[in-house]
Amino acid sequence: MLFDGWELQFSNWTGHPFNVNNNVNGINGDPDGSGHGSALQSWPTPADIDKIEKAYVRKVVDTVSDFDNVLYEISNESAPYSTDWQYAMIEYIKSYEAGKPKQHPVGMSFQYLGGRNSTLFNSPADWISPNSDSRTGAFNYRDNPPLGDGSKVVLSDTDHLWGNGGDRQWVWKSFLRGLNPLYMDPYEDPPVWERLLPNIEDVRRNLGYTRIYAERMDLTAMTPDLNISSTRYCLANPGMEYLVYQPASGGFSVDLVAGTYSYEWFNPVTGTKVAAGSFVSEGGRKSFAAPFSADAVLYLKRIPASSVGK
Fold first, then answer.
1. Backbone angles phi, psi at 229, to 5 degrees
2. What is the Cα 33 distance to its own chain's centre?
3. Per-position DSSP letters for the chain, written without gaps between them
4. Mean pLDDT lowest for which of 47-51, 254-258, 268-272?
5. How far apart are CA 146 and CA 174, in angstroms?
6. How far is residue 45's CA from residue 149's CA, in Å, rounded to a whole number?
7. What is the pLDDT at residue 45?
8. Where are the domains of the chain?
9. Beta strands 127-129 and 106-109: pairing type?
10. Residue 56, CA distances (Å) to 51, 62, 276 in order
C-alpha cells in the first residue's frame, strides 16, 4: 500500500510531513486551507508534489521489484477526489516497471467515502477491491457475489465489504464465484470481538480449505458458472473437474459431461472429507445429496478412460 487516504481525510493531517508546519522545504499539501491533505491525491497535485510522490514510488518499486509476491495498491480509502490521481499513478507504475525484469499487478481499492465500484472497473488497475454493492441486479459481494468475469482480478476484502465481518459461507461463495477472498481480522475491542468471535477461527480455517482445493485443481482451466449446478455456486472445467458449494442443507443437481468421475464430499464445518468414491455419468443432470446436514462441498474429477477399472 503506497499511500493512505483515511489519515488525510479523518485522522492525523496535523502529523503529515506535507503539512506546511512539518517541513522546512516550503511544501504545503493544503494550499486551500481545508484542514486536510486531500490535495495531495488530487490531479494535478499542488506545487508539483506528484514529483516527490513519484520519486517515493520509484524507490519502493526499485526495492521490491525482484520479488514475486508483490501487489501494489495505490491508496487505501481515498475518496473520489483521488480518481484521476490514482489512475495516473497506476499508469506510472506500469510504465516504470515495464523496463524491469518483473512486472507486478497494480490495484485500486474502494474509495471511501462516496466511491463507486464502476470507478474501479473502469480504471487501468489489474486488480480491484470493491465494496458490497454490485454492478448487476440482485448480486452483492457479501452474500451473493457476481461472477468474476475476467475483466479484473477481484479481491473480495472484508475491510471494504463490512469493516468487520464475514463468515464461512462468504469464503466459499466468493471462491466459487471466481473471486479472491481476503479476511481482515477484527481489530476493535468488545463488543465487536464478542459478536464476531464464533466466526473468526471458522473463517480462517475455511480460507485454508479453499486454498487446498485451489492447489489440487487445475484452477487456471476452471471458470465460475451460475447454471452448471442448481446451487449456482460452481467452478468448472466441464468434463474434467467440478467444485460445487451447497450453502444450505438439501439435494442439488450438477450438469455433467458423460464420463467416469471420482467424487469427494467435504464438510466445511468440521474440515473433514466425509465420503469418496466414483460413478459413471451418461451426461446431463445428476442429483446429489450430502451425507451430512448443513452446507457442503462436492469435488468431482474425471477419471481417464485408461484408468477406469484399474
1. -115, 145
2. 37
3. --EESHHHHHS-GGG-TTSGGG-SS---S-TT--SS-GGGGSSSPGGGHHHHHHHHHHHHHHHHTT-SS--EESEES--GGGHHHHHHHHHHHHHHHTTSS----EEEEPPTTT--HHHHHTSS-SEEE--SB-SSTT-BTTTBPPP--SSSEEEEEHHHHTSS---HHHHHHHHHTT-EEE-----SPTTHHHHHHHHHHHHHHHHHHHHHHHHHTTGGG-EE-SSSBTTS-EEEETTTEEEEEESSSS-EEEEE-SEEEEEEEEETTTTEEEEEEEEEE-SEEEEE--SSSS-EEEEEEEPPGGGTT-
4. 47-51
5. 9
6. 34
7. 86
8. 3-219, 220-307
9. parallel
10. 9, 10, 54
**What is d(CA 59, CA 93) in angstroms, rounded to the nearest whole number?**
11
pLDDT digits (tens, 9 = 90+) for 133-167: 866 678 999 999 999 989 999 999 999 999 888 99
User: Does position 25 have pLDDT exceeding 70, yes or no?
Assistant: yes
Any idea which architecture 220-307 has in CATH? Sandwich (2.60)
Q: Structure pTM?
A: 0.91
pLDDT at 245 over 90: yes
Site of grid cell 497506476 = 90
Q: Flag the least confident range among 6-15, 19-28, 230-239, 247-256.
A: 6-15
Q: Distance (Å, rounded) from C-alpha 78 to C-alpha 114?
A: 10
Closest CA to 161 of 213, 109, 207: 109
